[in-house]
Amino acid sequence: MIYLVRHGQTAFNRERRLQGHEDSPLTELGRRQAEAVAGLLAALTRGEPGWRVISSPLGRARDTATAVAAALGAEVEEDRRLIELSWGDWDGRLRSELEAACPDAFGRSGWAFDAPTGETYEAVCARMADWLDSLPPEPERRIVAVSHGVAGRVLRGVYAGLPRDRTVDQDVPQDAVYLLSGGTIARIDCEPLD
């Protein structure tokens, strides 16, 4: 089984700035979200040993993974295949600026993959499929993966064999985990934060 986690809220998330391969720190809310997810995963795994925590190398994911690993008594492993989609020329740009400059690029399903010099949908699917193929088979798989919004959508889509339109329309909460097991996906929410 795989528990998939999106990193906690960042300064760029709060500003509605596209991060891609750029990075920004977790906000106070983001740190609380990371701790809440860590507590939820500790309860879900019931202290059983042998869980691997595998993270994107970007700081926001790594910081979230560190909280999770501490709660599980594990070490953080990094895997570049879990990194967020590269927006290319749009990395680090405010969404409002891009909506004004490129109004036709927004609103369509899958628009994230239309960024100039950005990563394609097919490329992200390929690296997610490669990552999944590198894991032990179920039921031996005991993985917590810490990734990102778009990358997490694509990972779930590849895992479940979803078509592109359903893949890109999935939710990307920062206060929940997804259980990927037996070919199905289940969302498990954290307790609401005050």
* Separation, N- and C-terminal Cα atoms: 30 Å
**CATH architecture descriptor name:** 3-Layer(aba) Sandwich
- Identify the strand order in the major beta sheet: 3-2-4-1-5-6
Report the strand count: 6
Helix content: 25-40%
What is the mean predicted local confidence, pLDDT?
93
- What's the main sheet like? 6 strands, mixed
- Low-pLDDT residue spans: none
What's the multimeric state? single chain
Please write the string of helix (H) and strand (E) elements: EHHEHEHHEHHEE
Coarse morphology: globular
DSSP summary: helix tally: 7
Q: CATH homologous superfamily, by name?
A: Phosphoglycerate mutase-like
* Secondary structure category: alpha/beta
CATH domain class: Alpha Beta
Proportion in β-strands: 5-15%
Q: How much is the radius of gyration in Å?
A: 16 Å
As for the number of domains, it is 1
